[in-house]
Amino acid sequence: xxxxxxxxxxxxxxxxxxxxxxxxxxxxxxxxxxxxxxxxxxxxxxxxxxxxxxxxxxxxxxxxxxxxxxxxxxxxxxxxxxxxxxxxxxxxxxxxxxxxxxxxxxxxxxxxxxxxxxxxxxxxxxxxxxxxxxxxxxxxxxxxxxxxxxxxxxxxxxxxxxxxxxxxxxxxxxxxxxxxxxxxxxxxxxxxxxxxxxxxxxxxxxxxxxxxxxxxxxxxxxxxxxxxxxxxxxxxxxxxxxxxxxxxxxxxxxxxxxxxxxxxxxxxxxxxxxxxxxxxxxxxxxxxxxxxxxxxxxxxxxxxxxxxxxxxxxxxxxxxxxxxxxxxxxxxxxxxxxxxxxxxxxxxxxxxxxxxxxxxxxxxxxxxxxxxxxxxxxxxxxxx
Length: 384
Ligand code: GLU
Known about the structure:
This protein has 15 helices and 15 strands. It is of the alpha/beta class. The chain has an 8-stranded mixed β-sheet, with helices on both faces. The chain has a 5-stranded mixed β-sheet with strand order 12-11-13-14-15, with helices on both faces. The protein is globular. The structure holds glutamic acid.
């Protein structure tokens, strides 16, 4: 075992495991043998003192099978209806399987709006930590019945990344239908090589991940990489590994070189800043001058009105906004102390002019440092 793996595993106690639909499905809808094997594997970890939280897909696939539907479901209501049928079965299968191993399960269905609301986010956190204290296994899926378009996580990879942050996981294991991340698509090229460790999200790594998905899952490797980026940005290592491999979890925890390990980035975002950076959708954009950019990125300062060149969007006090440089590149995300209307009046001004212009001044800073998540150093995606 290499030193890095050994070091990561020595500090691992709480594990977020995500299982994709492609792992869980067989000819006959849900693959009960695979699920039984994974559950035995997870139960072994719990017996050895690890806390396990599971994010699982498979509801839609299972519901589809129940209704004897072959081919793709086209409309959102069809997918939602299939999920409503399949989710019950999915839980029954897990529940039965975990009980054989002496463990109880808890079902948690979430939508994106549940985690973007800070109070609900904290409520979920309290529930999960109580379940973990009780030694029950939280089994989480997206609440597909109510989640459409803008409230959808997109896919369970994203949901799992949010939950990894929420429970402050020490390790995020993303189980999928292939062995890990390859340097090119293994379905297309025989020369494809598995990348054992990723220490930086370089252009090559981005290019290695394609959008293609199996017929069962929604995410593809690209969304797995996005999820790995999100968790490694707050210091949580991630392993993308083959979910159908026998005793894959036991093997990983024993330090076997399985899958692709994504190393945590050096600088960590705390849980609140992660929430700002990744759970919230910006309501507007502030374009910053070079002085403000430097103050934020290099000096750890708050954002003041003087550094703002332009204000885009309509937002109110407390809303999330993104901060970009003159070139439009994302620098940070944060919660604003002024509305867009107010900011349009005070942009470029000195702090001591705020009161004069607005007639009041509750804050000196447009975004206080505590509510500002610098994303540039941690998160090099071109898509953000
Ligand atoms: N929530 C969906 C399901 O359980 C799956 C979403 C995904 O595959 O990422 O069927």
